[in-house]
Amino acid sequence: MIRIIKKKFILAFLTTVSVIHAQFALPSFQGVSVKDKNGSRITITASDGSNSVSSGSITNDATLTITFTANESVTGFAVGDVGTIGGSLSSFSGSGTTYTATFTPSSDRNTVIYVPASGYTDQWSNNNLASIPFYWTYDGTAPTYISGTYITADNSKVKIRLSEVVYDTDSGSGALEIGDFTLSISGGTATLGSNNPTSITKDTPTFSSTAIDNDLSGAFGVVIRDLDFDGDMDIIATGLDGDDVNWYENDGSENFTERTIDADLDGALGLVVNDLDGDGDMDVFVTAFQGDDVVWYENNGSQSFTKAVIDANLTTAYGLDVQDLDGDGDMDVIAAGRGINDVVWYANDGSESFTEYTIDDELDGAGNLVVSDLDGDGDMDVIATALDDNDVVWYANDGSESFTKNTIDNDLANARQVVVRDMDDDGDMDVIATSSNSSGDDLVWYANDGSENFTANAIANDLASGAFDLQVQDIDGDNDQDVIVTAFNDNDVLWYANDGSENFTKNTIDNNFSGPAEVAIGDLDGDGDLDVVATARTGNDVMFYANSDSGYVLDISLSGTPNGSETLTISPTSNSIYDFAGNAAATSQSYSTVTLKDQRPTMTITAVNGSSASVSDGSTTNDANLTVTFTSSASTTNFSVGDVTVSGGSLSSFSGSGTTYTATFTPSAEGETTIDVAAGTFTDASGYTNAAATQFNWTYDATKPVINMRASNGSSWVNSYDVTNNSSLLMYFIATESITGFTVDDVGVINGSLSSFSGSGTTYTATLTPSGDGLTVIYVPADGYTDAATNNNVGSIPFYWTYDGTAPTYISGTYITGNNSKVKIRLSETVYDTDGGSGALEVGDFTLSISGGTATLASTNPTAITKDVPTFSETKIDNNLDGAWGVKIVDLDFDGDKDVVAGGYFGDDLNWYENDGSESFTERSIDANLDGVLGLAVNDIDGDGDLDILATAKEDDDVVLYTNNGSESFTKSVIDSDLGGAQNIGCNDLNDDGYMDVIATGAESNKVIWYRNDGSQNFTENTIDESIDGPLRFVVKDLDEDGDKDIVICARDDDDVVWLSNNGSESFTKNTIDNNLEEPRDVDVIDLDEDGDLDIVATSGDSDGDEVVWYSNDGSENFTSNSIESSLGSATTVDVKDLDGDNDLDLIVNSFHDDVVLWYANDGSENFTKNFVDNSLDQATAHQVDDVDGDGDLDVVSTGKAPDDVMFYTNSDSGYVLDISLSGTPDGSETLTISPTSTSIYDFVGNAAATSQSYSTVTLKDQTVPTITGNNLASDNSTIAVTFSEAVYSSNDGSGSLEVSDFALSISGGNATLSSATPSSISISSNTYTLGISLSGTPNGSETLTVSPVDDSIYDAAGNEASTSQSNNTASLNANYVIDLDGTNDHAYVANSSDFEPDNFTVQAWVNLDAFENEDYFVYRHKTWFIGFSRSGTKIEGGVRDDDGDWLYPISTTTPSAGGDWYHVALTFDGTGSSTEYAKLYVNGSLEDTESNSNHDLNTQNNYVSVGAKNNDGTISNYFNGQVDEVAFWSEVLTAAEVSALYNSGTPLDAGSNSGNYTSSSGLVAYYKFQQNANTETGSHNLTTSGGPTYSQTNISSADDDELP
Questions:
Q1: Which pLDDT value is given to residue 279?
Q2: Among 440-449, 1408-1417, 1420-1429, which stretch is predicted with the lowest mean pLDDT?
Q3: Are 676 and 649 a contacting pair, CB within 8 Å?
Q4: DSSP state, residue 643
Q5: Which residues, including other chains, have CB under 8 Å from residue 1461's CB and lie 6 or more apart?
Q6: Cα gap 543→1270, rounded to integer Å
Q7: Euclidean distance between CA atoms 323 and 276, whole angstroms
Q8: How many angstroms separate the CA atoms of 448 and 922, rounded?
Q9: pLDDT band at residue 928, thresholds of 50, 70 and 90?
Q10: Of 1472, 1397, 1406, 1387, whose CA–CA distance to 1441 is shortest?
Q11: For a pLDDT cut of 90, what percent of the chain falls above it?
């Protein structure tokens, strides 16, 4: 791996210095004989054709013949087995033991030829051993003069500097002699006394110091490298105490800019620069003494460094080197840990992953180290110092990175630094080291005898505390190695000049450098000699010592006196000056001439300002005048002001004598000036006329700089006032001239922050990140930076940007119409169909879905979409602003909500109304004494980040500025107090100079005035036009799109709409757009028809013609008038905004005479529909449109002059109405979801609405109409109960109980008719309504009764109306039948059942007597109970027999009559009393008799219950002659009230009881209605008829019916 090691060594070495010197020979190697044990070896030699060329030589041969000699015969050796660096092989041939080839170098450079192991074999098939490489430096370039040739002031000596060390012979030896140079002269008057120098000496270096940094705390390590590869040398340094790693960027003129690599490396100490990762840039390596770290800073190619810790545990990490220690082709890191006595190396695996290996862990106080092939065996060794052991040691590498420790010196007190060089030029590497202790030698070099036996030689032993750091270079260019050291406690930087025999002379570079630490050598200024850079730990300094010379000084002999026009040429004599390789300097050279010094008197011109500060030639200042001093090199008596010529100004107050004269210079204007004294204008005491003075140049600049701002989102420019969704912007700050002192702290930001600020001169950048959604303001206030003339800046026009990172969302207000045909969605902001902020929404932008219920969607998209028409609700902000006039909406206090600014014309008030965020406004007074306040404008006119206010005062003719101090406290200043009839006012940078100007109109003076701002709010009045009669409101826009700002204005008294065209220099040409618009009041300029050019909208204050007009621009500023409104009394102010959010521009207009605020809806084709915002605002004057309440739609604020009102009109809606198509009838349980279709709905900046939204669902309205689901007709036809499918109401809002008038009855067929079509009564139970029926006639059962809802009378809770046409709403009337008994053999009976013998019971019947017969029974149970005629036959009697055989016979007092009268008969028995039993008889609801006995149970019998006869176990007797109906039996005792209720109910038994209707009573055992059958209405006790009784129709309708007895 030798070739890679050597390559890295050479390259690393060559980066140390910028000039290749011949004395930097490559290491040479001495061959040794090797016994053939493992393989053959080739020896490489070379010849130039006539002479041999040894390894390590430097020659100028174009090619070499290379000979490869094997120590035994080999096979398989080919040209491919030979490696070369810096050249190529050709003509390869040979066999056996000898091979040859021609080597051609690729350029002037170090070259290497090597044969690695295992490329060929010997006769025993042993692979070859690696050869010792052949090193050769090709130098085909002759020495040349370099810059720095100069002549002394008295023309006696000239200095020549050469590009490399030179010699008197072509063999690289011999000092130059006078004959080696030839002189010649031309021009002027002087001539040469000799054509050769009269003597020649080598110049001794002198050093001048320049502080690079005086604040690097504990400055320590230092390296010189071209870190940024820009062709000049930079400096890298560490600060041990400040933990800093810095680099200092050289601008090519040795002006250094400090750059921080790391400000937090604990105890930054050792420093190396190399390309570790092979990416072509230089990385930095540092040890952290206190932090115990070995750190690598990876250079990203632009000197931005990434920190990587290689080792975090090397205690008190100290010395450091970076080399390819293991020869594997990548750079490894070698370091010393002083605190743990370690020398370690970190093997790089090629991917910058490191493995730590210990070389020595017992080197007491391991200090500095260096890696070099000290023993010349082809691998890298390590040489180190031991601070605490006083040792200098070296570690011999066996080729496998196993190291053997060898001591060079064990008595060098506090051995600190070590360097390896061939000090004595004997072909082997020597060692030089320092001692930082004064007890012995301070600086020693150790001569290597070639076998690594070292002899110590003291260079210095007189330093107070020894030497600290060390470098070895030929600093004086005399062909030997000099030594440069630092002496820490002596405060010295020294160099020891080598006389060529290793005798050293001490020279001081600096003797007052506080605690110097380390030193670096390199040609920092590129002048051909070596400079010095040193660090001072105590003084915290990094110092640059420029080597002022390393040339040859030639004495010349002249005849005559030079006048400065003579050219002296110093040429190398032919074949006299050579470099080490034998290249001869050409006789023709650059830098070979000097101009002899002019020995005539000269005049020097200097200047100071009024503060006596020097003003240098070529400078730029803002001084109003200069004091100029003329200084002559010799005394003169005839120099006068007339001898001076000037441009750009004038001289005054000239005075002086001898050698010094002064005058005052006053510039005539801003710009460049010159001051000259021509040649031959005065003489000195010797009579010599003067030479021309060097012209004095000065630029007078009194203009203050300003910064203009712009921004980029990475792909396009973002303009001020834009709204975007970029998460950050790159801000550009462009100054009008080069500035200094501009930092990020000079920039103010509201609602955001700046980072990554950088720049210089005129251009700076920073990244702007918003704090959140909303307006972000970036501003640069005045007095933050200066220009070259030290003028402070003025405030910039702020950059306003609104960040919107929030996607549009649904907001509350989603609803569906009652018929489910339309649904409304409201959004948080105006939305579009595309992400470009254009296009109206379409049906496909919404997706519908439905769940639940019965209805489904016919389409999953709306069938149509319309933008809802805004409606406005008003709030009074102020009702006491006398003569309310001008108004502006603006976030004046930058708190995120919109405030209002308004003026009161009669009250002279200027107010602002602070919004608390909930649209509650607090009045704040700005000025209560502005006479006739009219026009208003709000802008940041001074660029300090807050908003100022401009106003006109018509009655005072004033134009006024209110400067905001940042907390909404305002300072008033009058810009103009003489603008007759001051009207409108605006703020704009009219001339694009970066300052906000003011424009105002005077209606009485007919003036349009531009107040030019100088940036410091000093305004210069410029009349733009004074021919417009009655100029009022105006707009500043680039109407013709030519890049400058025009003005469109309305001329009230001329009836004109005028365009003032700017020619680019703020000279304006008047153009008439309309000369027949009566009393125009206001204009707006906007692209109304969206065709890419600007149109104009104007209003008229006269009712005789059109009041609202728009002028369409054809693109060439030809305008066509289009009427929008012609029926108003007047139109005053106009605003053009998309008020309804449908993506076209609408108009908002105030009408002063009509007392209205209007808006005209644009249909997208510029057809306008008039709508009212307010139709009763008295003298509606001015308005503004903005989203005041932050709900996503535009609101209106307007003033009413007469009522003194400031009104706020909230736009209540900005939603979309979607038509939906349904299948089926909704039942009210369906949920409709209205979702934005994916990536279909966008806000203006391109944020897409999410498909999932709050407020996205509505419940469909129940459209199922209420219906009658059933009915129940009373058996006696007295009522009908109808049941509805749901709850119903009398009102469509789900309220109100139904009344009889809500129903209509009708009847068809049969005999009976209705007495009234309206029910006679109504009762409600849940959804069932029982309606009373009033009949005429007797139903025969063929009548159909229909119950219908009356139209518009019955509704469900959802407002669905019950139809007048219903199913389940008819019933057939009941014909009331009774059983007819003939008194002979007709009867009916029920089989025996114990159900008819309870202890408590009630039995009833309705009876009608055809004839009286004693003991005829109506209802009978043998030996148990009965009701019938008494035994006398004239009364109605009941009977009850107890289980003791005793009968109770209650009997009526009523004597029934035969022949048509009906009687209600009821018998009750209570047999549960504790001592008494009762039998009671009721006739026609009245208690007729009560019989009692001691308590017994009812008698039990196994027998029938019979109707119309006595049935005794089948023996029938006592037949009843008459009619019977409504026979019922209860196993309970009915009360008298209940019996009365039964009587009064008629038939059927539908009267109420305590437990409900009697037919549903739990005690009812049997109930017989005799409706042409004998079936019971409850249970299973059916009657059986016998004898053939018949049924007849009889109506028993109520207790008070005449047919009832």
A1: 66
A2: 1408-1417
A3: no
A4: G
A5: 1408, 1409, 1603, 1604, 1605
A6: 112
A7: 9
A8: 94
A9: very high
A10: 1397
A11: 71
Please give the structure tokens belonging to residue 1419. Answer: 């209802």
pLDDT value, residue 885? 96
C-alpha dihedral, 1107 to 1113 to 1119 to 1122, nearest 10°: -30
Amino acid letter, residue 774: G
Rounded distance, CA 125 to CA 134, Å? 26
Q: φ, ψ for residue 400 (rounded to 5)?
A: -120, 20
CA distance 584 to 837: 76
CA-based nearest residue to 1394, from 1549, 1239, 1231, 1505? 1505
Q: What is the DSSP string of 1292-1305?
A: TTS-----GGGEEE
- CA 1155 – CA 1200 distance, rounded (Å): 8
What is the Cα–Cα distance from 1063 to 1044, expressed in whole angstroms?
8
Cα–Cα distance, 913 to 979 (Å, whole number): 28
Q: How far apart are CA 827 and CA 835, in angstroms?
A: 16
Preceding peptide of 105 cis, ω within 30°: no
**Residues 1486, 1488: Cα–Cα separation, whole Å:** 6
DSSP code at position 957 = T
**Helix or strand or coil: residue 1123?**
strand
Q: What is the 3-state secondary structure (H, E, C) of 143-169?
A: CCEEEEEEECCCCCEEEEEECCCCECC
Name the nearest CA neighbour of 41 among 99, 103, 120, 95.
120
What is the rounded average pLDDT of the residues 640-662? 96
Closest CA to 923 of 979, 883, 878, 953: 878
Ramachandran area for residue 389 (φ above 0: left; ψ -120 to 50: alpha; else beta): alpha
Q: Which of 401, 358, 360, 357 is nearest to 379 (CA)?
A: 401
The b/e string for 853-887 (b: 16+ C-beta within 10 A; e otherwise) is bebebeeebbeebbbbbbebebbebbeebebbbbb
Longest dimension (CA), the chain: 195
- The residue type at 1226: P
pLDDT of residue 439: 79
In percent, how much of the chain has pLDDT > 70? Answer: 94
Query: What does the pLDDT average to over 1386-1414?
Result: 87
Distances (CA, A) of 980 to 961, 1002, 1004, 1079: 17, 5, 5, 19
- How close are the terminal C-alpha atoms of the chain, in Å? 143
Task: Tokens for 778, please give them.
Answer: 């970036």
3-class DSSP state for residue 1541? helix
What does pTM read for this prediction? 0.54
* Mean of pLDDT values over 720-724: 94
11 in helix, strand or coil?
A: helix
Buried b (16+ CB within 10 A) or exposed e, 1424-1436: bbbbbbbeeeebb
Of 451, 448, 417, the C-alpha closest to 430 is: 448
pLDDT tens string 670-700: 999 999 999 889 988 867 778 899 999 999 9
Give tens-digit pLDDT for 1477-1517.
889 999 999 999 999 888 777 888 888 899 999 988 889 99
Residue 416 or 1571, more confident: 416
pLDDT exceeds 60 at position 1341: yes
Residues near 1537 by beta carbon (within 8 Å), at least 6 away in sequence: none
* pLDDT at res. 23: 29
Residue 718 to residue 423: CA distance in whole angstroms = 66
- Cα torsion 1358, 1362, 1368, 1373: sign: positive
Q: Is the pLDDT confidence value at 979 over 90?
A: yes
pLDDT in tens, 874-908: 999 999 999 999 999 999 999 999 999 999 999 99
What is the separation of C-alpha 232 from the centre of its chain, rounded to a whole number of angstroms? 41
